Amino acid sequence: MPRPPAVPADKIVDAEVCARAGSTIARRFSAAELPRLREAGGQDGSWIEAEFQFSEFDGKPAVAGELQGTVVLTCQRCMRPVDIALDDTFQVILVDAERSDEPGGYEPVVVKASRLDLAWLAEEQALLALPLVPMHESEDCGAEMAAGEIASTEEREDDAEDAEDAAGATTHQPFQNLRDLLRKQ
Fold this sequence. Notes:
The chain has 185 residues and is α+β, with helices and mostly antiparallel strands. It has a domain at 9-135. It has helices spanning 15-21, 35-39, 118-129, 138-144, 147-168, 178-184; strands at 12-13, 24-30, 47-57, 60-74, 81-95, 107-110, 116-117. The strands form 2 sheets. It has a 5-stranded mixed sheet. Strands 1-7 form a two-stranded antiparallel ribbon. The longest helix has 22 residues, at 147-168. The radius of gyration is 26 Å and the shape is elongated. The protein starts with 11 loop residues before the first strand and ends with a helix. The relative contact order is 0.14. Keywords: Ribosome biogenesis. Plays a role in synthesis, processing and/or stability of 23S rRNA. It comes from Steroidobacter agaridevorans.
């Protein structure tokens, strides 16, 4: 069975000890340190700053956190890089087994509290904060297209209109007689 990847000691904390002490920890992570973010399309230049405020709730370690940063993704409109700004907060409670009825409005996270990987938690929250479909603002995206791309797009549209006109003469309408058939019954 393969071992989990080695994680530097400064990214692993004992959340139970931190919760009892009421600690606050701040870390900065680059794209190279966040493999799941890279798998989701995060490119070089992406970074996340996270602040973790530990406390105890109902005898369990809880974390209130803030994320700021920039994730460089591919715009799904123009297929060029787009910077997505992250500014998010989260509240999680660390549990041994998943339950849906955690009190206090905390999102349960199943993890061994004595070995909490801060990079993993920041990456998890960043993935949840990302947009489903990353895109430039509409005016920015159009300005990003090169003049040649716009010209070729217009040519393709003209060709499509010509093809529609030619096909319009022989359009088949399969449900044209459906109303007559229903009336006969």
